[in-house]
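Example 3.2
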Amino acid sequence: QVQLVESGGGVVQAGGSLRLSCAASGLTFSRLAMGWFRQAPGKDREFVAAITWSGGSKYYADSVKGRFTISRDNAKNTVYLQMVSLKPEDTAVYLCAARPSYSDYADDRISEYAYWGQGTHVTVSS
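Structure, written as tokens:
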């Protein structure tokens, strides 16, 4: 059973930065493609960023492109989301997700991810 534990959320002013981490256990991390999603109050869950098992391919939602960077450290079983130039509209619960895959395609589809963390809260004040 894969377990995903997010950390790094908090309250930050607009224009600030945060780095989220997601530690995985229960399955060989290098077999997992990883993604970050977010859900704001009263809104649907939405894709933020994805990275393939090797880290060779990444994909971002248009709303975060140029501001967020996804990366992974397979030796530490951890995926990261570096967020800069944060905006109030980035306020949400950020969730880490995983899917066993050796594909070179960084998938943005919620339905493709089998495992989910509990999320970490990010609040950006104006």
